[in-house]
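Below is our example:

___
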Amino acid sequence: MNLKTTLSLILFSCLSTFAHAQKKHSVHIVENDAYQTPLYGATLYLKELEKGGVSNISGHISTKDIPDGSYHCRVSFLGYVTLEQEIAFPLGEDLTLVMTPDTQELQDVIVEESAITSVQMQQAKLSTINISEMNLINVPRMLGEPDLIRMIQNLPGVKTETDFTGGFFVRGGRNDQNLILLDGVPVYNPWHLFGLFSAFNTEAIDRVELTKGIFPAQYGSRLSSVLDIELQKGDTRNGAGYLTISPISASFSYGKPINQKTSVLVSGRRTYLDPIFWISDPILSTPTDQYKNRYNFFDFNLKVVHKFTPETRIETGVFYGNDQLVANNYYTPDDNPYSQSQLPDGATTSSDNNIKYGWRNVTGSVKLVKENEHIKSTSHFFTSWYLADNQYYYNDENFIYRTESNQIVTRELFDQHFTQDFTDYGTQQDLTFFLSDQLSISTGAQWLYHSFTESKINKEQQYGFNGNQSDYKDGNPTIELILNNISGDTAVTNSHEISTYLSATYAIGKLSIYPGLRYQYFSDGHYSHLLPRLNINYQITQSLMFSAGYGHFSQYLQSLSLDFMRIPADRWFWSNDNRPPALGKTFTVGVGYQIPKVGLFSIEGYYKTQTGLLNFSIEQQSKALDTNGLIPEFTRETISGTGEAYGVEFMLNKTKGDITGWLGYTLSWAYNTFEEINHGNPFPSRVDKRHDIQAFVNWDFAKNWSLGALFNYKTGQPLTFSTQNYLNNPDPLGIGDQAGDIQVTTSYNNFRLPAYHRLDLNLTWKNRRFFKHRTEVSLNIINAYNQFNVLTIMPSTSLEALPNGKFRAFPKNKYISQMPIMPVISLRIGLGKDQKWKD
């Protein structure tokens, strides 16, 4: 029986089980919002019977044990207006009760969890952060753009490399170890502007959760974290949305009903840097040096939701993100005596240089959701496509020189082209059975087909002739193709990934246990893994909670890149017969305390080990940069090693009052070991930053005014740097100066950059009027006190001759800065009936 047949039988079995589930009517508790969000934990009390029930995660309360008759019922939920009404049982159909938030009560109480609780938030409570509940809009914005990933980079346990990179590293893991899901679809490299922004439009997002610890068995194929992003479903009552205008781009998001059962959400964002280049290119250009540069990015989201019945809906979505950079320089020197004196009359010397970077993401999905008090079924079909297309090209005319074979070169061409193209096709079936108020069981299966193509082509040509240089000026030699080197290759990988899982939720008084088991199979190399997961939560008091977890994880796709920059030329590697997958084990333990009228204070420690981590050897890293082109040329030869990370995180999240925000501190260690690097000894990973402090405060200091301040302090990033300088001494690690053996490095990542710290500010003026729409005006100041944070060090060594005939070497290193102070103004304009200005 082949893999596809096995998967089909699994899915058919799941669907059959769902189809034969017995229908029983229930009370459905929802919030009075645009989406009728189910309320998890609402209480239904029947006065005459002195009994009741509690709503499950889908908002349903079972009525099967209620005797026939009419009863006075009271429905209550913390932070909502209590409902009281007569209800006759048995119910002829499901009864939906709509609850309205009690804004007066919310000033005096603390809502301990959101109305709808995801499986991540249920199981890994202290390790999961509900980012959508935080004040995303008032966080200071890089170049005026509100950005989800930048927000995540400022949370405890999450680290970044530089101001210019969009990746994030969770608890000592790598950037590629994070499973990024957009409405359940995996997204690869979701960055704009080489990582400066994420490709997700913040205005279109409804829910975002980051799970850093033991994520549930429902999720797999990554070692460190799950970033689960859900787009808005569209407003089912009035059209609503926002238009945001920043100095580099404009974005909009708008949702509205099509009819009573169907809603649509559309969002888009595009740069308008093109006019800047139209102006700057002529200014930078001279008669002999012409520039033609272009850059733009664009992203688009479309989501349509249709409700067939109160229990059944279908969701379809499309995401498209695209970046294109073109840089051209055409150079015709007017003063080049070495070449010009040897050229025929009327001939000119010229150099045409071009570089193109392009990358895009496209996802599409169809999701059928059906839920009632007994069961929730989600059938998901999706695809995800990622393309990186990078090219560097130059054409030099009449730069005359002689080759080692005594030939005269008159024209030289070089073309470097690197592409990566991979597509996922997948289907997934998830089922959750609500057996009682204390017990639920979840199961499901997923099939993924991966198609990956990588192409690297280098083309080098030289035109010239045999003879003397003077022949070119005085005579008319025959110009021939004297060099034609074409190198490179194309690799195609097709593989299947199949997984199934089984998990449970069991509550015994104050103790909640969440066991899970996931089976993962990867066809290329025939790897299979059984991955147990376990989370335990104990509610010691109403305000104090203890949590612990342990889990095994596997990953079959890894990416490698330069140490200090994230560009679309990262090299991706799938597991195969010669390249085993990465495997990880993680243990977490923590406590959380709900401080009245403040928020949650949590402490969580973690320890994780990883095997099968990929890297390039030192020699391969040096060769990747030692090329004629501007695109690093990575080999397919990799080495394998291990990782170890441990630490403790503190976080206080204040969500109520005029002053809100969070304070976080992380104390952590992260090490890697590779037999071929650092003599096989452990060394700090590039995200081993011992101390990490994040603080965000938003203060509504006056009517229609708010001030947001974000502060960061991080221990300096590890860096490999020479500690000794000699003449004609080889570098033991092979990292030393390529021009001469004068820099000696005795250990890997042996040096740390200076500590990083930065303060960003956001001043928002609300409820302004702009063409009869409510508008917010924001002033953002990035790096408010203009701190010189070091990006990297450019090493250099000078030699001084001594009278005794010896030489003295001393360093002359140059520090490269990160983001300087940058003030930016942006507008946020409300769209829809609710945002109309009323005189």
